[in-house]
Design goal:
This protein is an all-alpha fold. Helix content is 66%, strand content 0%.
């Protein structure tokens, strides 16, 4: 069998695509069933960062910046232009140069009522991703061999510090505005919004950050399992892959059905969505050794980042201006199907132009092959 680090996991790309599609469904109000896709994303990120840094860590942080920043900046600047031209389309966010700068620099801020998000509403996950990359980069600087364990320790320290500064709020998950900050009002301004300093700890100290750690743990589990069985070729047997995929899909269905019926604030998200996301990921990983994934599902995974970032505002526009997605009707069902098809097409175009062309060009310029 190949070395563990020589495999191409099309099954993980398929899962990434399904996760992005679930987030799209989350923002169609009569569905609202896929927020857990974010938890799957975080788990995949934790695993892939460990996997891709096994052989080489050269230019690690710069490569991550090239991968994430160009498209995120395009979307952020596009949303800012819409804020200036069509402010009535937005409920909370408003056009502000200072907020634009903070968004571009991944500095969390309160957009109102304790809601911590950048200008691109769903961009809070990108903020978390970039902060995780920073922690992992620090871990690599300390020790390549123990990078995973060091990063796990840093994630635990950040969530512990967040809980300490929020009076336990980030861990329990109560309203941020209910926190009793014993700091003489230095963190909270006169308008009662949370300052950027405290927002930093609220976002990056949230237990959801530990889901990147679940991805790191998945790497160690998967590698140990592979090494234990590679001489027998057990993992390449469909008798393993089919049940693994089946169990993952059952868990996936369970998350869909439970969405909206469980409290996932604070640490509960880690328990109710994070751990199932890890198990789903491991199931897809095992299935990938023996089962071939459909080409369209792998391509959906390729465009998942574009799909995630680009879908929100077209779906919201269709909801508010064309269809009403508040209840399931024939018209709203047709509108939702059309919306999903439209954002997939837009995401593919964005992926092809920005991720597949611009990003590749930037990588070649910044990291020439010698």
């Amino acid at each position: 069998m190949k070395d563990f680090h020589d495999h191409r996991f099309h099954s993980i790309q398929t899962l990434r695509g399904l996760a992005a599609l679930m987030v799209v469904c989350e923002h169609i109000r009569f569905l609202a069933c896929g927020a857990f896709g974010v938890d799957i994303f975080f788990c995949i990120s934790g695993f892939m960062i460990m996997y891709t840094t096994h052989h080489s860590t050269k230019g690690f942080f710069r490569k991550r910046l090239v991968r994430i920043v160009p498209f995120y900046y395009v979307i952020t600047l596009g949303v800012y232009v819409m804020l200036v031209l069509f402010p009535s389309m937005f409920e909370q966010t408003h056009a502000s140069l200072s907020l634009l700068i903070k968004s571009l620099l991944f500095i969390p801020f309160d957009i109102g009522n304790g809601v911590i998000q950048p200008i691109v509403r769903i961009g809070w996950t990108v903020n978390c991703e970039m902060f995780f990359y920073l922690l992992f980069w620090l871990s690599l600087r300390i020790s390549h061999k123990y990078r995973g364990f060091i990063c796990l320790g840093l994630l635990l320290c950040c969530t512990g510090l967040g809980a300490l500064l929020s009076g336990g709020n980030t861990w329990i998950g109560d309203s941020l505005m209910a926190v009793d900050i014993q700091a003489g009002g230095s963190f909270i301004g006169k308008d009662t919004t949370i300052s950027s300093l405290l927002a930093l700890f609220f976002l990056y100290g949230n237990p959801v950050m530990l889901e990147f750690g679940l991805g790191i743990l998945s790497y160690y589990v998967a590698r140990a399992l592979y090494e234990h069985t590679k001489n027998t070729g057990t993992l390449c047997n469909k008798s393993i892959g089919i049940p693994a995929l089946g169990l993952s899909l059952l868990l996936f269905a369970g998350l869909i059905l439970s969405t909206g019926h469980v409290n996932i604030l604070g640490y509960r998200r880690l328990l109710y969505w994070g751990i199932p996301a890890m198990l789903i990921f491991l199931g897809f990983l095992l299935a990938g050794y023996s089962l071939k994934m459909p080409h369209f599902s792998v391509r959906l995974g390729d465009i998942s980042f574009s799909l995630y970032l680009i879908h929100y505002y077209p779906i919201m526009f269709l909801d508010r201006k064309v269809f009403d997605f508040s209840t399931l009707t024939f018209a709203s069902a047709i509108g939702a199907a059309a919306g999903i098809a439209a954002v997939i097409i837009l995401a593919y175009a964005a992926w092809y132009v920005i991720e597949n062309k611009l990003t590749v060009t930037l990588r070649r310029k910044l990291f020439p092959v010698k």
